[in-house]
Amino acid sequence: MIKLLIAVRHPFDLWNAPSWFAERLRADFSTINIVHRPGYEGMDREILDAEIVIAWSVRPEQIKSARNLRWIHSPAAAVHQLIFPELVDSDIMLTNAREVHGPVVAEHVIALIFALAKKIPQSVRFQQTHTWAQQQIWDELPHPTEIAGATLGLVGLGSIGREVVKRATALGMRVIAVREHPEKGGDGAQQVFAPTQLGELLQQSDYVVLAAPVTTATRALIDASRLAQMKPGAFLINVGRGPLVDEASLADALRKKQIAGAALDVFSKEPLPADSPLWDLLNLLITPHTAALTEKLWERHYALVTENLRRYLNHHPLLGIVDKQKGY
After folding, report:
1. Res 316: pLDDT
2. pLDDT tens, 207-266?
3. Is 270 an active-site residue?
4. What does the angle CA 234 – CA 238 – CA 239 come to, to the nearest 5 degrees?
5. 98 is known as an active-site residue
6. Given 9, 219, 289, 300, which residue is catalytic?
7. Which of 41, 146, 270, 299 does the annotation list as catalytic?
8. Domain boundaries, the chain
9. What is the CATH number of domain 2-99+295-313?
């Protein structure tokens, strides 16, 4: 009998698989032995004969000991924590949940764009001091603005990026994008650039949205030199992963008002330390990695996992396959 091990443990409650998840899997797949561990205790033993594992992370030594392991599924979109030689060089398939998170994160991107364009954070701060700040909000540059007709520069056209294109286009924005293989087209974006043309995208964009995976090529992708290529009135939004941005360079650019502002949902270190200088930047909007939060999260995970289990049992290609060499 195939053994499926669920070992999903995270300090944040929503990221933990609810009890009903394993119960429904047992009801729907009676020929599979479903083992649900509420934490990582006992995982070294349980993984020995597991054929399928659902987990945020697996250690290299566990890969070596798991002789029956054929497939690892990550409930996350980013899987850089799993890209180590023992897994990359193995025949074990790796899938992720990028299609689960894409639509929800794209909604968050649009919310951040509206918040920045309409100066919502400033209004909230004035509300806290009982100040009717109509004149102050108008006088402080950049002025509140319309997003229709603005240019959104998207770095990454994966599951998040494609959903952002749909929503931004519907709001009348001009969307341009950078993707690794521009010959694949723009998925609705009006212009597509190669990674070597990132500077052109930055120079044209009113909003730069980062939705790329973390690879050796994308770490600190947005550094001081790239920030210098952005428009003075432009905003940077990161919903990809923290390491995409050189945070020290961004903080410096925001202090100098080199760009209009930024919104970050992800950070190089999470939780963001209380003494981080980022907290005190008035032109930076911080959301605490909440872009993917939704009450529908585990229902969506369940739909993906069950579809892939059916495919696995029928020897059909899985959804969300990760290219282990590329890391996404």
Report:
1. 98
2. 999 999 999 999 999 999 999 999 999 999 999 999 999 999 999 999 999 999 999 999
3. yes
4. 140
5. no
6. 289
7. 270
8. 2-99+295-313, 101-286
9. 3.40.50.720
